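Sequence in, structure out. Go.
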Amino acid sequence: MFRALKEAQTPLAAEVRALMEAGQLVPDDLTIRVVRERTAQDDCKNGYILDGFPRTPAQAAMLEKLAAEQGKKMQAIEIQMPRELLAKRMVGRRNCPVCGEIYNVYFKPPKVDNVCDLHPQAQLHHRSDDNPDTVQARLATYEQQTRPLLDYYKAANLLQVVDGTREPEAIYRDIVKVATADE
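Output:
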């Protein structure tokens, strides 16, 4: 959602961009406004899946309130996997700037090193923050700041667990099953 705001020409987008360009974190009240605006669009009328939000119990409480206002059912999904595997997936990830195809040097390498299989003229992109030090710092931040959400959602009986050690397609199928249960 925040990436899309970089190009949007709305007052809300301008407000978010100003904070991000100044290197500041977007406060919770502004973040929930972004989520509210995006989830009010037609493609979300039958529900939506959020990835990377909420990150704190305070944001979770705001999201629950928003979902209730929208008449949506809440469900939290934890994708469990060993920390070492998660780090390897992040550090090894590469993507094609033309088609967005995702590769991983450890698990799904391209046929030719650093070149997209579908677009041979395209050099694969490696995010600058997908390096071992930054990944370890992100995982430590997750443990300190985001992991408390698991207890929050367990207490609310809203947490489902999906095995993240399998192929992405299998993980996706399980997420869809959880998200569409009780429909």
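Check: The radius of gyration is 18 Å. Residues 31 and 66 are 12 Å apart (CA to CA).
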